[in-house]
Specification:
The relative contact order is 0.07. The chain starts with 5 loop residues before the first strand and ends with a helix. Helix content is about 40%, strand content about 20%. The strands form 4 sheets. The protein has a 9-stranded mixed sheet with strand order 1-6-5-4-7-3-2-8-9. A 6-stranded mixed sheet has the order 16-15-18-17-20-19. The structure holds adenosine-5'-diphosphate.
């Protein structure tokens, strides 16, 4: 053996993943070949780009290709490329460890789903190179980085350790030789030395790969198996659904089919082609800061980068695919991309296209749209904060829960269509749970009037309703903020005398309560929103809602305690009784206690948290005892 032979251990997580691969019952074992070809194709892309950008790199790029060779006697299959290759350090860090953040998540899900008998996750997470261990007894990788003289040989059975050594005679690029497990049709282990089989798999998964994939046969010239047509450059009506699907798998590492395919072309000053997909399920890293975002960027068929976030705004980060922009420089950096005018224009067009596609999906196929919304609705709503230019379009896509229907969310359009005679605003309430919101005292007057109220329970809802302010010319109005007056002119006139009367009668009690509860509320007033509850708490238009206050605290932010407004129902017996008691003896010590209970009840009724629940319970228990 040549120099520096080492036996190294796989890092713990890699070991676990390999264990799962080696003993995999995953039924689509054929995908290992797709993964190897995909890696080889990436390596060729990288070499081409590097040779174009770095003129000093001395490599022959005249015949970049992928080769597949088999040996029936030795039962091996080799996938070889003359691409960028790997240095010894690369091999240790890229193959010996899994740097990818999703691995722990994948392992957890794989373990869970094994019990559930579903192994489709392997494709979904794109385990790449490791997939080989589903079909291999042993894997040998030989590689040399372009521009370096020494090569690296790596060998492993996937059980705990691998052997790595530096070699002198490695051709540039990478070859992966798989020593195959015995054929076992029950275990979906096909004969991967069979050329018919290989042709079929390559055609099936890798036809669009832009480099020739050649099958090397002993007795004849190598044959190219794939058509190499860049899918996005072909006219739409010439691409089969099947081809779109396989391409989607290639770019997304997702095993499931996409929910929607968008194939578009931009002409004029900036030419580009885009092939975008909306997946049918959310990836595990959708909400993680280090999650994969963006689409692949090509410049005139030359791959430039993965995960190009500059092309897709954050709130559409679930979109996968390829953008081929014609007039960009190849060695453009990620930072410069963000500023590039052409990219900005392309991005604006992509956004508009994705949004209109979603709108069409919603009308044409409600069921499919429901799937979309359940997976990505929350992310899409972030757009209401990020993308003021498309606020209207995003609002049109919303699915919101409402008091109208307990099971089916509504669109804002449908809400507006159902608005009652005389109703001018769109009403909503925010909070954590639908059930609490539905029964909150804030809704009483609206229910009495037959007005529909939107029930917004997503944390992000708290923020966008404030920011957006209106839909279709009608303002969005919280039922828990400000004064509510749903009366018509006529009703108002009729009630005027009664109100003046009440204001007079309650003046003393309100003053007393303001004073007693001044630590917790900033104002006490009579309410027009209550029909059955004695009291409720409301905010001023620009006050933080309790949920937001809680959210900010949970994020470790300092926010001042918001004192809200206590509103009383002037016709409730508890309130009229309290007034009578106050008139009888304003110095009665029990009054302050009742005030405290009244405030506590209002807070509990809206689903809020008491600051001192034990004290509330004690005061209440005392009270109850006295009534027995
Ligand atoms: P992925 O391809 O999803 O990144 P893999 O486990 O398949 O994950 O590969 C890990 C890394 O190893 C790749 O990102 C690449 O840097 C490197 N690699 C794998 N195969 C090759 C190859 N044929 N040529 C060069 N580098 C490769």
């Amino acid at each position: 053996m040549s120099s520096r032979t080492e036996t190294l251990e796989f890092q713990a997580e890699t070991r676990q993943l390999l264990q799962l691969m080696v003993h995999s019952i995953y039924s689509h074992k054929d995908v290992f070949l797709r993964e190897l070809v995909s890696n080889a194709s990436d390596a060729l892309d990288k070499l081409r780009l590097e040779s174009m950008v770095d003129k000093d790199l001395e490599v022959d790029t005249s015949d970049l290709h992928i080769e597949i060779a088999t040996d029936e006697q030795a039962r091996t299959l080799t996938v070889r490329d003359n691409g960028i290759g790997m240095s010894r350090e690369d091999v240790v860090s890229l193959i010996g460890t899994i740097a990818r953040s999703g691995t722990a998540e994948l392992l957890r899900k794989l373990k869970e789903s094994k019990e559930a008998g579903n192994q489709d996750l392997i494709g979904q997470f794109g385990v790449g190179f490791y997939a080989t261990f589903m079909v291999a007894e042993k894997v040998i990788l030989l590689t040399r980085r372009a521009g370096q003289t020494e090569g690296t040989r790596w060998e492993s059975t996937g059980e705990g350790t691998y052997v790595i050594e530096t070699v002198d005679d490695a051709p540039q690029g990478t070859s992966v030789t798989v020593h195959l497990k015995p054929v076992d049709s029950e275990d979906n282990l096909h004969d991967y030395t069979d050329h018919g089989r290989i042709r079929e798999i390559v055609k099936r998964y890798s036809d669009f790969i832009a480099w020739p994939i050649r099958l090397v046969t002993a007795d004849a010239e190598p044959v190219t198996l794939n058509s190499m047509k860049a899918l996005w450059a072909r006219p739409r009506d010439e691409v089969a659904e099947e081809e779109y699907r396989d391409f989607y798998r290639h770019v997304s590492h997702d095993w499931a089919d996409p929910l929607e395919t968008i194939h578009m072309r931009g002409e004029g000053v900036f030419e580009y082609e885009a092939l975008l997909f909306i997946p049918s399920h959310a990836p595990f890293d959708l909400y993680r800061a280090d999650g994969r975002r963006g689409v692949q960027l090509y410049v005139k068929r030359v791959f430039v980068m993965d995960d190009c976030a500059a092309l897709i705004p954050d709130y559409l980060r679930f979109v996968k695919g390829v953008v081929d922009a014609h007039d960009l420089s190849l060695n453009i950096s990620r930072e410069i991309l963000q500023q590039d005018r052409q990219i900005q224009i392309v991005r604006r067009r992509l956004v508009r296209k994705v949004l209109t596609t979603l709108k069409e999906m919603r009308t044409a196929d409600a069921e499919r749209y429901r799937t979309f919304w359940s997976q990505f609705g929350r992310v899409l709503k972030e757009g209401l904060l990020e993308d003021p230019d498309n606020t209207e379009a995003i609002l049109e896509l919303l699915c919101v829960e409402s008091t109208h229907d307990a099971t089916e969310p509504t669109t804002l359009h449908d809400y507006v269509a159902r608005m009652k005679e005389g109703q001018t605003e769109i009403y909503y309430v925010t909070g954590e749970h639908r059930a609490t919101l539905e029964n909150s005292p804030h809704l009483e007057a609206f229910r009495a009037k037959g007005y529909e109220v939107l029930l917004l329970t997503d944390p992000v809802d708290e923020v966008w309703v404030d920011r957006v302010g209106q839909f279709d010319g009608r303002s969005l109005r919280s039922v828990a903020k400000g004064q509510v007056d749903l009366d018509t002119e006529q009703e108002r006139k009729e009630a005027e005398t009664e109100r003046e009367q009440q204001a007079k009668e309650y003046a003393d009690l309100l003053a007393f309560l303001r004073d007693t509860l001044s630590d917790t509320v900033k104002e006490v007033r009579l309410s027009a929103r209550l029909t059955t509850s004695p009291a409720c708490l409301v905010g001023d238009a620009h006050d933080l809602t309790p949920t937001l206050e809680k959210m900010y605290r949970a994020m470790g932010q300092e926010v001042p305690v918001v004192r809200r407004i206590l509103e009383l129902n002037p016709t409730h017996p508890l309130v009229t009784g309290l007034r009578a008691a106050h008139q009888r003896d304003a110095a009665d010590p029990g009054l302050a206690e009742t005030a405290e209970l009244l405030y506590g009840m209002a807070l509990l009724a809206e689903g809020g948290d008491l600051t001192d629940p034990a004290r509330f319970a004690r005061v209440l228990a005392d009270r109850l005892t006295r009534t027995l």
